[in-house]
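Milestone M4 deliverable, item 7.
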Amino acid sequence: MKLFNLTGRVAIVTGGNSGIGFGIAEGLAAAGATLIIAGRRADANAAAVKALRESGAQAFSIEADIAQETDCTRLVAQSAERAGRVDILVNNAGIAIRKQPQDYSTAEWRQVIDVNLSSAFYCAQAAYPHMCRAGGGKIINIGSMMSIFGAAFAVAYGASKGGIVQMTKGLATAWAKDNIQSNAILPGWIDTPFTRTAREQVAGLNERVLARTPAGRWGSPGDFAGAAVFLASSASGFVNGASLVIDGGYSSMG
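Output delivered:
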């Protein structure tokens, strides 16, 4: 369907070299978008680009530490220079430091906020003029079920992801006049390297997730491809400031 066609569009995906980010990148590429994969690890970036190109997509990578405002600005500028435009920004990169709240250092708190929340704002700021020149754009911010739930071992992470939801709403109201829609995706428990570490660090997590999830399984990165294409395409032209939960029904359970 033309509504979901992304041919000619350029998408930046931060943290797009693995996990949910790569699942989203694969979906956008399949819909015709040119992909810019952004991440700190050159080897992982190269592997992701290789896989995307083997599927027939146009894809490039840019090494960047999005915790640094200057790298966010450079990332968007280099993406526009290389691909000619910027239409879609997926703010996916994130980290978690799993500790009880009393045990966080100031540096650890700031690191989580900088990577998960501040970087998304800096990248959106940098992308704004390019999207305006293109006649509009799509911003997809990756939150978490921790945007709406609390967890004793993820206070900093939850604060950053709660901020993602409110930032998304603010951007949506500010830039609707420029035909830029800003929406969020809130993943549940997804089987990625990120959550495999969580299962090692949090006793009983796997069993609790399976018991509460009506789908009876952990999610996979591929579960995000369709939602990302919808939010990146003209099909979602009147969807703005929304948060789409993708969690297999986890948040619906009492």
